């Protein structure tokens, strides 16, 4: 006999017969017909190779074997109830456990406000946050290791669902002492491609956006002057006069206001881009992630 040939409803029926002393009352309790109950009990007996109940005009009574099987059935049903309760608890916990990964730019300039609003709307959500580059965020989403991710790359990663949550633009920045800061004419895209720049690492959405802009124009940029893993380091290097940098306008807003950096006008390129939420395709978002997505997409 296969271990999977038993079903919980048959065991439940047996325990009800023992409790009520009647197959008919047990059937009524389970909301099935008496013939259906009789058939189910007979199938259970055949599968076990045991007579479990004796039926007469006064009702149904369990045999000695039936009482033993009923005792074990009660244990099985109790454990099954524990299993279902535990699964329900895990689902509820998962609904409150929000795993987020985000690119550096979004983490610095957008996510803090979104998370604050999430905590206001859904107090008690347990959020874990990983800040990395857009490529790694997409990898984590594809592996189902996060609930939702936020990226700044120019294209939707393969195999993932996405929604646009904000727009952004890249800007060329230099220190006030840089020759470009005194120019009246904008810098041409070709000139930018011929200039060693301070850039983010490969896999960064900012780096990928800039590379695609050059590629669409048929330009081949020279080797970077410096490659750094975080926006703050890129800003500091540019402000120290090491060289020009290309960063999100949102990340250099304070530096521009304080005069630490100067935005350089650029012609021949569109550096606007979309910021996206991503998650595994054909997989619904958990409730907390859905709430965060709606907050991110709300007009600000």
Structure in words:
The protein is of the alpha/beta class. 46% of the residues lie in helices and 22% in strands. It has twelve helices and 13 strands. The protein has helices at residues 8-20, 23-30, 34-48, 64-96, 104-109, 111-121, 134-142, 189-193, 205-216, 231-239, 253-258, 287-297; strands spanning 53-56, 59-62, 97-103, 126-132, 148-151, 160-174, 187-188, 198-200, 226-228, 245-248, 262-264, 266-267, 272-280. Strands 3, 4, 5, 6, 10, 11 and 13 form a seven-stranded mixed β-sheet that branches. Strands 1-2 form a two-stranded antiparallel sheet. The longest helix has 33 residues, at 64-96. The relative contact order is 0.14. The mean pLDDT is 88.
- By secondary-structure content and strand pairing, the structural class works out as alpha/beta
| Major β-sheet annotation | 7 strands, mixed
Query: How much helicity do the residues have?
Result: 40-55%
pLDDT < 50 stretches: none
The counted number of beta strands is 13
Q: Helix count?
A: 12
* Average of per-residue pLDDT values: 88
**Helix and strand string, N-terminal first?**
HHHEEHEHHEHEEEHEHEHEHEEEH
- Radius of gyration (Å): 32 Å
Q: What oligomeric arrangement do these chains adopt?
A: single chain
Strand content: 15-25%
Distance between the termini: 64 Å
What is the overall silhouette?
A: rod-shaped
